[in-house]
Every structure is written in structure tokens, then in C-alpha cells.
Amino acid sequence: MSKQNPTDRQYSRDHEWIKDNGDGTAIIGITDYAQEMLTDIVFVELPEIGKIVAKSEPVAVVESVKSVSDVFSPVGGEVIDVNKKLEETPELINQDAFGEGWIVKMRLRDAGELKTLLSAADYEQFVKEEKH
Amino acid sequence: MELIFEISKAGRGAAEISTSDVPVVNIDDAIGKKYLRRELDLPEVAEVDLVRHYTTLSRRNFGVDLGFYPLGSCTMKYNPKVNENVATFPGFTGLHPYVNDESAQGNLQLLYEMQKYLGNIFGMAEFTLQPAAGAHGELTGIMMIKKYFEKKNEKRPAILIPDTAHGTNPASGALCGFETVTLRSNSEGGVDIDHLKSLMTEDVAGLMLTNPNTLGLFERNIEQVAQIVHGKGGLLYGDGANANAFLGKARSGDLGFDVIQLNLHKTFSTPHGGGGPGSGPVGVSAKLVDYLPIPRIIKTGNGYNWSDKFPETIGRIRSFYGNFNVVVKAYAYIRSLGAEGLTHATEMAVLNANYIKEKLKPYFDLPYDRFCMHECVFSGKRQVAESGVHTTDIAKRLIDYGYHPPTIYFPLIIPEAIMIEPTETESKETLDTFCDTMIAIANEAKENPQRVKDAPLTTPVSRLDEVLAARKPDVCWKKP
Amino acid sequence: MDYCPHTPDDIKQMQSAVGIASIDELFADIPEKFRVPSVLNIPAALSEQETIKVMSGIASKNKLPQFTLTGAGAYHHFIPAVVGHIVGRAEFYTAYTPYQAEISQGILQAIYEYQTMIAHLTGTEIANASMYDGASAMAEAAVLCAKMSTRTKIIVAHSVHPEYRQVVNTYSWANGYTVVEIPYASSGQIDLNALQNELDDKVAAVLVQSPNFFGVIEDITPLADAAHKKGALLVAGFTDGTSLGILQPAGASGADFVVGEGQSFGNPLNYGGPYLGIFAAQEKFLRRIPGRLVGATVDKNGKRGFVLTLQTREQHIRREKATSNICSNEALCALAAGVYLAALGKNLRTLSELNVYKTHYLKNKLLQLKGWKEVFSAPVYNEFVLRCPDARQVNEKLQSAGVIGGYELQKNYPELENALLFCATEMLSKEDMDRVATILK
Questions:
Q1: C73 plus C89 within the same structural domain
Q2: Which domain holds residue C35?
Q3: How far apart are alpha carbons C174 and A105 in whole angstroms?
Q4: What is the dihedral of CA B453, B459, B463, B465, to 10 degrees?
Q5: For chain B, what percent of residues have pLDDT higher than 90?
Q6: CA atoms of C192 and C185, how far apart (whole Å)
Q7: C312 contact A CB<8A
Q8: Same domain, B298 and B447
């Protein structure tokens, strides 16, 4: 059973979450549903600080034993921090996808892009539909 | 069990080196200290211990000679021993690749005839025996397609690949700079013709098709598929991994394929060796002959010769001439089976697969209930729904019964896929016992799911922690 | 002769179970117009006895020499008896790729041991389970370097084996990279100035070979430094693995990748294949290197075991994003190499030293012949280049005496007219070499 999707953030159709810090920056991770689908995560390829990505471009890569998945940035911006703990303990994403398992911190290029994303309720509905 | 390094003891040794019959030279002076290594840390074991170590290892391994290997898409047929024997003739094993052609006429004849036989079997104009494996052959084939369009000055950046394709297909395409575009399958498991029509434009180099596909189904619309691709000036690539399904029934060239790769270690019985060596010959239609890799064999009145004089070639794809000793075994196989034997092999392979399909279909979900070719694909999703037992658990439980599991989780479009290819070299009794075992495991999944999930229970090691192996990789032993 | 166990009765019963009256019905999906009645234009079947006779006839059309003086990428070395016996065990050679680890601990552990020995020999930290051959291993290393850096220029030394350079050219063309060659100096080693002039920020990799095609040992450290200064990677190749018995490995001198041909380790000449591509790298490239990797782990009871690991690098998972499409490799040849290295152990050094003694003896014998001169001054391992009055004639004389002469360099290096590349391994006896001198006097 996936953990509840926190309502303090937004979601993308590629199963990323993004939490607006209110100061022009935001934190990005993947949802608990995503980590469940991937199963045990063995490696996270983190981006270089300073990397610029557009909305929906890959910003990181998450590997499990049997699969590789791109993490797509839900918004455009610049990477200003990465979760270095994931280098030694990639399983943090499995254990706490919404908290300790955060992946990158971005400076947003255009906060308006957040409006195009899904709310927790919308995301839950989307996942339900996808399962069928 | 210990590693060879852990049984090593200073001063021991297996192979002794002859004393020099020529004057000893001071190595430091001859070569210079700066170029010499200081440490050489290799195991030191006596021959008896060496032999015991590797023999014990072999007993922790499973091969076709031990039991049934129903691996879909791998064609694990019996490896005939006469072929192993003839491959050890000194005439075949002892020649340096750079001997003059005169001294290698036997080898050149063998290679030349092999090319011709494959050309006849598959209806292709020419073959190259250079590629070392199927994937290597794929790469070679795609390179030739690339060269073809370069020569015509046509920019075709994309290549179409069905969603049922083996991973080497998109990888090969990408390695030649192609953008891979996924082609959907229809509800029968064949190519979605409408989707193909919409995707096949003049920006597309062609389609990589496995036929029969990875669902074990023959592409019924192959003629239309070929027409659509050729109609827009594209080329049709055939992944011949499943050639065991149609020897003597159809020929790739007739079906419209411009280039195909084969796997001698599948269809032509050469042993898998635990992961190679294999051999991946590539056959082409007349359109692509000029681009074949070099060197190529020329036959004249005087015999056979290697030649590099092919200006349009894609170039070399490996050193020397190919996995020659593997080709020797496949050649012997073709000669000993003859036309009738090869045709019969396909017939029995397809009969065996359909027989298994009929016996198992009441117990496992069968996504496509029609005649299959040399392999059938089931889904383990009924078992997942009923008892939480996954395909991987069923596979591991089969091991306890003395079988190598079938191919699992492939093709990707079938959830919990179980792909079974019995090949023709299995008796009805083997198939019956295998089916009984699969049925028993299906029942066990219902009655005692935990037992299946804990499998294998009878092997030297139980289920291994693959997550740990990927998180904390240890690929090289370090002295503690 | 065929291997189908089916009796007519079996076939009848099975057809009935499948619900067909004849086998033909199973092929109904093949459109009628494409159906053929059987395999066409193949000679008739043979019994086992006849098969042996035919194959024997073909093999006897070959002429085996008494001994060979050619190396040039394939080497005649002594193979201890144990190798054939181990590799001939059906549990090894009739096995599939070890995806089902629990029933493949044998080959998995053997390959883990092989990986360990190769990493040590090459002075690196990781080695994969094998590539097809030395040439394609070098080409795949070049492609990997380009993909990791997104640079598109590859520098190759002209003294790298001609066929290796050709394969690099083919793979580079396929990926849209440019290849530039740098010359050798009069010593026979790479012209370092030329390399420095060619290096710029577009270069992904520098490919060298040591000992190079001329048998000359390269000084790897300055080459690696030069490459790294410009952000390029150094790929060092080799063709005779026994050279690693006494030579400082490139991995310990700054090479990022060490690739080469492992045929010398327990694999017969086999007229060019199957051979063994060796691919080794520094630890930081672990998650990017191509090919299979065996890793150690534990089972659920804490017992040590081995699995194929980091498979997400490979084509069956990464598909079009994979840096290589390699699937089947040369596992059995790697097993042979592992057994060979374990059998020789530290005696690999003794073997390599013996190669050096033989090489010196042969070189001195040939230099006593009228008009023969040394071409390169730098030190060599077991191959060397000499110029003679008439290379073609020399080889013809030797051929008539049943001996394979040296490799004529002129065909690949027109500037090296009448130069021959000779190889002396432990397989050449003093008598053989004396005989060569007599034949050529």
C-alpha cells in the first residue's frame, strides 16, 4: 500500500513530486507509488550542481536491480543542490520517498509552471486510472 | 566454497615452465626497470587442487547435458558430440590466422560453403560469418543499412522497432546513430499495420522485425509489412534468433527481408558455453552485398582467397575472420543433418512447443490462444492474483525439480511473462514430466504459496541478494 | 542423422493432443506463396561416421606448419592439459548464460575469479566477463569514452594493430565520431609531440597499444598525462596477454581503460577465433562499462554466492540508452583463460621471461644474416621488427621449408619496406631458431 501522498506539494504524471519552498526554489523527488513500482533502488545518478533543465527533461536517473528510470523535472530551472546521502544510501528513496529520499533542489525559472501540475488528489486519481 | 585465491599457497604451482634452451638474458637490462612490473599476484595451487576446484565448480552448474532448458528465444537444443570432436582436429585448431591462403584451403572452403548453405537455407544473396554473436551481427546489419542510405544520400534518422523486441535491437539502432521509434503490436501479437503505415515515412531507414516474434507467433501480415516498408524506400531487418521455427518452411529472403542475423549457438546447435562463444552470421539481399564487412572470400579456379578489395564495405567489425571454431561445429551440424534433418528439426520444435501450450493452457494464462511456432508465452498473472506467487517464484521452484527455468519477464508487453521454447531435441516424456511439474507448482502456489516463494530449496545457495550486489558491487576479490 | 527423439507413435499422440492431423497445419500462418517444401540446396544428410570423414577431409586440405614466426595479434603458446579438460566439462560448455544464479554458481564463481585475475594483471580495479576480441574491445572502449564525455574525436596511434584501427574506424563511423592517427617516432614508440599537438578539448579518448604492433613497449605515463591534461581518457591495448607477466600494466601507469586480446591465455590459434576480448577499467567507470559483470553477494542464509550484477548497464534493460549492445560474449574462452592463469600462477612471470630469452636469441641469430638490420631502438617483449634485403624471398624460403615466416609490414606500413615482424614464444626451440638461420643463410 503506497503511503498517502502529502498535500503540501504537487505531482507530475511521471510520478515525481515537487515541493515549493516559497522562495523561488523547490525540492523534487519521486512518489512512494513510484518507488514501490521500481522495487529496491540500488543507485541514483545525481546531476551536477548548476545543471539547467527544462520542464519534463530528465534531471536524474534512478536504478533498481531490474530497471532504470529517468526522473523528469516537473518544472524548468537550475539544480542548486542534490541529496548526497543517496550516494551511499539509495534505499532512502524506498524508505521515505517524500522526506529523506528527496533527490534535487532547484531554483525555478518560472514559478507559473507549478500551476500546470497535479494536486495530491488529482495524482491519486491518475494512479488509480493507470492501474487499470 | 572457497575461491581459488583462498586455497592458494606460496610455493605451490600447477604448470611448470621448461628451462630455457637459449641463453638467459638480464631482463632489467634488456627491457629497463621502469617498464617492469613489481608484483605478480596470481594463485599458486597444485594441479590436483586446481582440477578439484574447477571440477567442483562444474558440479554447481547446470547445462543442457544435465537437463531440460526451456528458455524461450535461446533455442537450447542438444549440442551434438561429433561436432565437438571434429572441431578439435589440429587442421582446424592449429592454424595461425595469418598463414598464407594456400595453407588454409580447407578452412576457406568450409567458410565459403557455410556462407552458401546459409544463403540457400534463408534465401539471402550473401552471408558474412564475421560477427562473434547475434548482437554483433545486429550491429553489423544496422551498419550496412546506415551505409546504404549514406550512399543514396538519403537522410533517414529513425528506425522502427516493435514493442516486443529484444533489448539488443534498440541498442544496436542507437549505436549506429538511429533514433528508435517503437511500433505497437496488435491484439493478435503481430505488427499493428495501421501504426506501421503511420510511422513508415521517408525519414525512416526501416523496420527491425523478429519473425516469428518474441511471442512465438509468425507475422501473418509479413507481405504487407514488407510492402509498406519497401514502399517508402526503407529496408527490412530480420532478427533471426527464432530461425528454428521456420527452417525448410519459409525463407527470409522470400519474405522480404533485406538483411538478417542468425545465431549459430541457437539454431545451429553450437554450445552456449555459459555465455559464449557464439557466432552471429549476417545474410543480405543483393541490395546490400557491397557493404558486407571485410575480409571476404573469393573463389577462383585456383581455390579460395581472402580479399579486402571491396570499396563500399562498412569496414572491419572485428579482428581476423570470425569465431571460426564455432562455425566449424555449425558446418558439421548442417552437413550431418542435411536438408531433411534441418526441416524435421523445425517441425518437431514447433510440434513440441504447441504440445506444451495445449497441456499448460488450463493452468496458466495464455495471452494468445492460437498455434504458436517454436515457443509459447504464458503469463503468471493468475497465480499472482490467486496467491501472490510471482513468475520468478515459479521459475525458482522449477529449479528444485531439476529444470532450468524458462525465460521470464520477457517480452515486456506480457506481465509476468513465462516464455517456453522446448526445441526439437526433447522427447515426449521430458515434455510430459515438465508439464506435470509446472502443473504441480501451480497447485502448490495455491496450497502452499510460501514454499514456492522460498524456492529454490535444494541448490548450493538459496536466493541471492541481487540488491546488495548492485548497491555495494564487489566484482573483484580483495585480499582481506 | 538428427537428434529428434520422436517416434512415429509419439508424433501421432502429440498431434492428437494439439488437435491437428498433420504437421503442416502448424505452419498455416506462413502465407502459401512463401512456403517451401523443405530446406533447399543443402547436401544430403550424413551418418556420424560419414560426418567425421567429410570434416577430416576438409581439415586435411590445410597445411600445418612446423612452427611459426608470426605473432601479430595471435600467439602460439603452450596450453597446459588441464585447460582442455575443464573447458570440456559439459556442465560448463552446454550451459546458458548464468541468469539463474542458483544453478550457475560454477561459471559465476569461475568468472569472478577471472575478473579478479585480469584486474590485477592489467593494474585496474574492474574487469568485465569478456568482449568478443581485442579489436572490438578497443572499439567499444572508444565509443564509451565518447558517450561519457559527449566529445567526438578519437586519437589512435598508428602503431596500434592495423585490424584494431580498422575496427575502431568502423565503430567510430557508425557513431559519427572522427578518428585521427598519430605517428610513431624512430624509436618505435609513439611520437609524444605529435600526440600533444593533436590533443584538444574535442578529444574523448586516446588509443594506444603496448607492446605495440611492432613489439615495442610504450611509456604509458606521459601519454596518460598528456591525454588527461586535455580532459581526454587513455585506452591502452595489448595483443599478447603474457606480456603482463613481466611488464608494468598500463592501468598502474595512468590508463583509464586497459583492453586487449586474451587468446594467449589458454585459447588455441583456431584460425582467428573464437578469441577473448579483455576489458578492464578504473573503479570510477564501474557503472558505465559494457559487458557482463559477476558480483559477489550473499544468499538469504548469509552464504557467499555470485550473481550477474549491474545489469541495468546492459541492453536488455537500458535498451537504446545502453552504451553497448553486447549480450553473448566469450565466456568459455574466459573460463579457459582463468584456468590457464590459475595453472601458471606466479609462473606466468617465468613464462614471460622465457619469451624474452627466446626473442633475444632469435633476433641475434637473424641479425647475423647479411644485410639484416634492426629498425626500432626501444625495448620489446616477444616481438620485434627487422629489415632484410628481400622480405618476400625470406618468407618464401621459409614457407618451402614448412615454416611460417615473419609478418610483412609493408602492406600496412608502406614506409617499412622489406621489414618483417617476428615473434618468438616459448614454443620455439633453439633448434627451430638455428634452423631458421640455416635456411636463410
A1: no
A2: 8-52
A3: 38
A4: 170
A5: 91
A6: 8
A7: yes
A8: no
Residues of chain C with pLDDT > 70, as a percent, come to 100
Phi-psi region of B154 (alpha: psi -120 to 50; beta: other; left: phi over 0): beta
Q: Which chains touch A (3 or more CB pairs under 8 A)?
A: B, C
Q: Write the CATH number for C426.
A: 3.90.1150.10
Question: A68 contacts in C (CB within 8 Å)?
Answer: 312, 317-318, 321
Based on the domain organization, do B109 and B34 belong to the same domain? no
B117 and B237, same domain (yes or no): yes
Measured between CB atoms, does C317 come within 8 Å of chain A?
yes
Check whether residue C206 and residue C332 sit in a common domain.
yes
Is C294 inside any structural domain? yes
Per the CB < 8 A criterion, the answer to whether C267 and C336 are in contact is yes
pLDDT in tens, B25-59: 999 999 999 999 999 999 999 999 999 999 999 99
Please report, as a single letter, which amino acid is at residue C222: P
Classify residue C114: in a domain, yes or no.
Answer: yes
B230 and B171 fall within a common domain:
yes
Query: Of B266, B257, B251, which is closest to residue B135 (Cα–Cα)?
Result: B266
The answer to whether residue B284 sits within a structural domain is yes
pTM for the whole thing?
0.95
Is B307 found in the same domain as B250? yes
Q: Model confidence at A114, in pLDDT bands (50, 70, 90)?
A: confident
Checking ipTM against 0.90, whether it exceeds it is: yes
Distance CA A49, CA A82 (A): 7
Q: What is the mean pLDDT of residues C64-83?
A: 97
CA A46 to chain centre: 12
* The total number of structural domains that make up chain C: 3
Model confidence band, residue A112 (pLDDT cutoffs 50, 70, 90)? confident
Same domain for C399 and C335, yes or no, is no
Residue environment code for B281-297, b if the CB has 16+ CB neighbours within 10 A, otherwise e: bbbbbeebbbbbbbbbb
pLDDT tens per residue, range B87-110: 999 999 999 999 999 999 999 999
Cα angle C188, C193, C197 (rounded to 5 degrees) comes to: 130
In the chain, the amino acid numbered C293 is: L
Q: Which three cell numbers stand for residue B389?
A: 506467487
Query: Do C419 and C340 belong to one domain?
Result: no
Q: Which residues of chain B have a CB within 8 Å of the CB of A65?
A: 466-467, 470
Is B390 domain-assigned? Answer: yes
Assigned domain for C62 exists = no
Range of the domain at B47: 1-60
Which pLDDT score, from 0 to 100, does residue B166 have?
Answer: 82
User: Which of B248, B97, A37, A67 is CA-nearest to residue C273?
Assistant: B97
CATH number at residue B165: 3.40.640.10
A&C contacts, CB < 8 Å? 17
Digit-coded pLDDT (tens) for C18-67: 999 999 999 999 999 999 999 989 999 999 999 999 999 999 999 999 99
C103 and C252 fall within a common domain: yes
Tell me: pLDDT of A2 over 70. no
Q: Do A40 and B409 touch (CB under 8 A)?
A: no
| Number of domains forming the structure of chain B | 3
Confidence grade of residue C393 (pLDDT, cut at 50, 70, 90)? very high
State the cell numbers at A32: 512512494
Query: Residue B170: its pLDDT value, please?
Result: 87
In this structure, are B52 and B165 located in the same domain?
no
Instruction: Indicate if the pLDDT at residue A1 is higher than 70.
Output: no
B40 and B148 in a common domain: no
In a domain, B225, yes or no: yes
Chain A CB contacts of B409 under 8 Å are 66
Strand order in A77-82's β-sheet?
A: A10-11, A16-20, A25-30, A104-108, A77-82, A52-53
Residue appearing with cell numbers 576480448: C277
B392 contacts on C by Cβ (under 8 Å):
none
Query: What are the residue ranges of helices labelled H in C298-389?
Result: 315-318, 331-344, 347-367
